[in-house]
């Protein structure tokens, strides 16, 4: 049992690392810079200072290691959009509305899904069962 649990934890760790690497690379491939150069065009030393401030002048593997370290310490940094807030403050400000919308969505999904699932289970291998299964599968994707 312990060996199985350790294997599952290692698999989880590997999955998290792969997902974080994919996200890191995807963000790096986006065109432009983290700050809005359309509003404030940066030239020469100003651009170099911004690159240094955010660690973008370092090699990619160093940036990734710093990214993982900050994630491990739950440090998401400062918001580029809301200059006076950290990312956590921005998330906390939007959390109540997100929780309300998510709760209502779950209530609606359970209210419809459970009764329809019971009906489909009672009429196994019928057209109704196949239709419900198809709609549920396409709804998930």
TrEMBL record:
One GO cellular component, as annotated: plasma membrane
Keywords noted in UniProt: Cell membrane, Membrane, Transmembrane, Transmembrane helix, Transport
Transmembrane intervals: 9-30, 101-122
Topology of this chain in the membrane: Multi-pass membrane protein
ABC transporter type 1 GsiC-like N-terminal domain boundaries: 1-99
Localization terms from the record: Cell membrane
Entry keyword ATP-binding: no
Name of the protein: ABC transporter type 1 GsiC-like N-terminal domain-containing protein
Annotated organism of origin: marine metagenome
